Every structure is written in structure tokens, then in C-alpha cells.
């Protein structure tokens, strides 16, 4: 069985082209603010800032 805990799945969307690129886990206890990471975007073909979108189930 899967563990129940404080980790959530969240999506990361490119701030430049608005394409959905990544799904990552976030610990809601330790990281209460929205994630903002610099990741590679396949559509832009460069590293761009990505921000957290809605929570995934």
C-alpha cells in the first residue's frame, strides 16, 4: 500500500510559453510557499523559470 503523508504531487508550468512540463512531489509541511524552479523547457529549448500549478491527485 502507498504511504499516506505530507507529500503532494504538483505540476510545473513554464512561465515563458505556459507549457506543462513536469510533475514533482512537494512536502506541504516544509514547503508552504509555491515552488518556483529553473528547469529545462522542451518547447523553448532553454532553461526557464517554472512555477507550481494546481495540485494533482
Automatic annotation (TrEMBL):
GO terms for cellular component: cytoplasm; ribonucleoprotein complex; ribosome. GO terms for molecular function: structural constituent of ribosome. It comes from the Bacteria. Pfam families: Ribosomal_L33. InterPro entries: Ribosomal_bL33, Ribosomal_bL33_sf, Ribosomal_zn-bd. GO terms for biological process: translation. Keywords: Ribonucleoprotein, Ribosomal protein. Belongs to the bacterial ribosomal protein bL33 family. This is Large ribosomal subunit protein bL33. It comes from Candidatus Roizmanbacteria bacterium CG11_big_fil_rev_8_21_14_0_20_35_14.
Amino acid at each position: 500500500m502507498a504511504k499516506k503523508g505530507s507529500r503532494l504531487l504538483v505540476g510545473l508550468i513554464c512561465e515563458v510559453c505556459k507549457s506543462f512540463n513536469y510533475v514533482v512531489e512537494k512536502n506541504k509541511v516544509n514547503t508552504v510557499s509555491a515552488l518556483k524552479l529553473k528547469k529545462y523547457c522542451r518547447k523553448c529549448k532553454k532553461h526557464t523559470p517554472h512555477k507550481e500549478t494546481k495540485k494533482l491527485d
